[in-house]
Structures are given as structure tokens and as C-alpha cells.
Amino acid sequence: MSENIANKIFKTLSPNAKLLDRNVAHGQIIKDDRTIDECLCLFFKSPNSYTGEDVIEFQTHGGDGVPNLVIRYLIEEGARIANPGEFTYRAFMNGKIDLLKAEAISSLINSQAESAEHHSFDRLSTNIAKKLNNIRELAILVIAQLEARIDFPEEDIPKIEKQKLLDEFDTVINKTNDILETYKSGSLYLKGLRIMIMGEPNVGKSTFLNNIISDERSIVSEIPGTTRDIVNSDIYIKGIRCNFFDTAGLRDADNLIEKKGIDKALEKIPSSDLILLLLEKTSNFQYIQKIVENVPRGKIIYLINKCDLIVKDETWEIEKKLLEEKIKYIKISSKNG
Q1: For a surface tag, which of 92, 184, 213, 252 has the fewest beta carbons within 10 Å of its beta carbon?
Q2: Which domains does the chain possess?
Q3: 0.85 cut: is pTM over it?
């Protein structure tokens, strides 16, 4: 918004007062000789603003009516609503911030969990940019040493130490890999953890989800195949967003709709971060293992459900199978906790 537009609707309460760079003015929003609000006006003269351009900021009273009325009057005088991310885009184009900082600001604005906000702020504080710049400077130094000896062989340049050069290359590679390793964990902080709850029909998946989120989100029934579409719900654990997906029971279904639900569940396996595989006394171990045979074992947590039904000194067949395959598991009760 230009200074001219602001002057059309804002009048300072102090006679002959003007808008000064990085100063606060107390005044009124006036339209057609009618006072709309008494507010504060801040003026940031280029380049001393977030975008590097002239910026004017009005601090009006809250609610819906007054701010919307002020916006409407500004638009009538020639201003417009900024596009999503436009201020950050302008700041980037005007050289006020780099691309990494622009992305960090976007992540911070869109973060949905405390951990995501912390991660975005770390990026915003230029920690990543500093590390990348250090790597860049080291790489340039290494390349310069090589090019100097290639381009000026006749000059009296000390002979390069091969091992020292290789060590410097290794340092560049290792530091780059260290940053790349943070991508996956950073993605989990920003986007959340996608957790699939899988298992055969009536194994207790829906009850498990309902108990986790403390809500009757999934329908619980003794009728096999009750859950046919994917039901999801978000909760926050220690500031991290966890998105749980209750899926259709895994079996060779004849019903077309149920079969589509199972296919949708299987399609989501590659994009999930963690699979909670629920088993119980009658689970078909061979069938389940065939479904998840291509899934990394570290991505699956095996849960033997309905352990409240196990009688003393009894070992279910499914537990014996897991022990034979040396698969770690946890005994739980979706019903009783």
C-alpha cells in the first residue's frame, strides 16, 4: 500500500504531524468525513521494511467489523488484498531474504504443531544457511587449489598434498550428508507422522484408534468388514503431530466395496511412516507376512491385541510364530488399555 493511499483515509490527531520512517502515529481512519476507528499507524520507509519497499501498517481495534471496513475502504482507494506469500516473495525478490529463509517462513506459518514451529524457527534463524555457506566456501577452496595448479603449471606453487586434498573432499561430502540426513526428521516435524493401523477383520483396529484419540471416531462392531474406508484422526504427542489411519481389515474379500477399501489400505503402505500391525489369537501369520513382506521391518510394530483374554501360562500360536521368526512384539488390550 502506498503512502498516498494511507494519507487519504488516515489523519493524525496531532496537527501537522507527518508519517515518519519507523515511527508510530496516533490518528483516525476517516471516510467521507466519518470517523471509522481510532488507531495506530506505522510507516516503514524503503529499504527499512520486511519487503524492502515502503510499508504502512494500521493497528485497529479488533473484531470483524472495523478491520473489514478499513480493508474495504483501502481497496476503494486503490489498494488490493495481497496474494498468499506475496510479502515474503517481495522480500526475496528485493534481496531481503534468501530462498532458505523464505521456505522457513512458509513452514513456520503453516506449522501445525509445536515441534514444527521449533524446527521452522531453527531454519529461520539461518542455521542451515550458515552451514551451507561454510560447505560452499570449503568446496571453493578445494577447487581453487586444483585449478591453480592446472592453470598455472609454470608458477612456483607448492605441490599439493594428495591425502590432505582427499580429506578436504571427504569433509565436504560428510558435512553435506549431515544436512541431508536432517531432511527426513525435519519432514516428520513439519508434516507429522503418518501411522497406519493394519490387521485382519475384528482384530481390534477401530477400538485401538478410538482409545488413542479418546473419541468414537471409528465404528466398532463384531461384524467382520465394518471398516471399509480409511478413517483418520490427528493427535499431538509431545508436540509432534501424529496422523492415525484406521484401515479396512485385511482378508480375501468377495464384497467389491470391501475389496476396494483393502486396496486403498495397501496403497497407503509406501507413503506411511509407521505401521501398527495388530494381531490376535486366530491371526493368519503367513497371510499377514505376505502382505508386508516388502515393508522394512523397522517400519512395523507388531502388536498382539486382546491380551486380556490370554489365560495364565497360555501362549497363543501367533506369539509362537513371532518368536520363531525372531520378531519383536508388544502385548496390548485395545479394550482395557
Answers
A1: 252
A2: 3-90 (3.30.1360.120), 98-189 (1.20.120.430), 192-331 (3.40.50.300)
A3: no
